[in-house]
What we know:
Layout: H1 12-18, E1 22-24, H2 34-43, H3 47-50, H4 74-80, E2 84-90, E3 126-130, E4 140-143, E5 152-153, H5 158-171, E6 184-189, H6 202-209, H7 213-216, H8 228-260, E7 269-272, H9 292-295, E8 299-302, E9 310-312, H10 321-328, H11 345-348, E10 359-363, E11 372-377, E12 381-387, E13 394-399, H12 415-432, H13 437-442
Parallel strand pairs: 1-9, 2-3, 2-6
Antiparallel strand pairs: 1-8, 3-4, 4-5, 7-8, 10-11, 11-12, 12-13
Helix pairs in contact: 5-8, 6-8
Amino acid sequence: MGFMGQEPVLTPVLDGFSRESVVFTEAVSNYPVCSPSRAMLLTMKYPHRNRVLGNCNSESAPHGYELRTDEVCWSDVLKAKGYSLGYIGKWHLDSPHKPYVKTSNNTEDFAWNEWTHPDRRHGFDFWYAYGTYDQHLRPFYWTTKASRDEGRFVDEWGPIHEAKMAVRYIRNEDGKFRDPEKPFALFVAMNPPHMPYSQVPPDYLERYEDMPLDRLTRRPNIPPANEKWGEYYRDNIRGYYAMISGVDEQFGRILAALEETDLKDNTIVVFHSDHGNCLGIHGEISKNNPYEESMRVPLLVRWPGRFRPRRENLLVSTPDIGPTLLEAMGLRAAIPTHVQGTSYAVDLLGGKGSRPSSQLYVWTPVGKPGWGKRGVRTLGHTLVMTCLENSPPEVVLFDRIRDPYQTKNFAQEGYETVRRLKRDELIPWLEKTRDPWIENLAG
């Protein structure tokens, strides 16, 4: 985001929105990949409790990696309180099953995309969505009443089309989208910025064509041009930024619709992402790792007259968002007792509540919930410990004060810091989330 001053990306709408919002500068996605992050956001639980321990696809399907019908999500809470709810865009919380839906990312042997049965939509009564599908210039959707074999393709860039549908929902044309007598909650899940980065309208790409490459590559941890990932970064960064600028513009259309319908002052608007993207930095093509480029995500929240615009360095995690907003809306008693996220409504409303000292990081191999990587992120450090079958354990400590771009492992010289973070931060997180990985750590 341009207003953060770290990258030369053009986001005029978000720059303006940030001046009206609480900007959580240290928000993270605790398991920074699509399905686990989305499941944490909806269920307000960490992966070992909601059981979405990896992306929903045909490989993970036998292990039950999908959003369960018996979960009580924040959307279910709002539905019970009389809200109309709409979902537009990427869902990615259902396991594919045979015969697989015929889309380009599903083959006879492996599948990603799947229809969501109405019984699995957790209160969202208006539906214009898909599982996961990355043909951004010709996206694919199921409508509210469509059956599994009635998905349709649209010849329009995904974010443009989804913003158009969101505007129609907000305006509620002819009362066809929602009950006009009820309050509403609308979830708009745009896929870009997401590979392939070439699939973006030319007018967004043109904004970066004349931007010198040296301006696009000033972050000191970007690999050199003569290395594989350095070449990858340079080949894709303009398309990546172009997608962000496109999403920014379409977000602006949604904000304008709220203002035009006199809903701005009585509507909470949240801008958030399920993960970041390394784009070749640290030798990582994408996300699902503990680096800042992957874990740290946008989180901007606006409620005119209620939330004082400012920047907050609260160590907020994805499962915290639902409880925080529900309590801020006066629905504290309706928050399910089993949620693991913490409400920071007191802080959001300008008071001083207890603040967390760290955030959890999780990654598990498919079907092996007790193995993988776990870690914690504080305001100054990131600790990551790896336990894999038949492999020696690994420890990585990043000191982000001395080394903000995470280029050096300080674990050996920072032994005391590793010991303290493990004892005071990581183990309590593992106990809270009932993570079987703690048994391998002890071993």
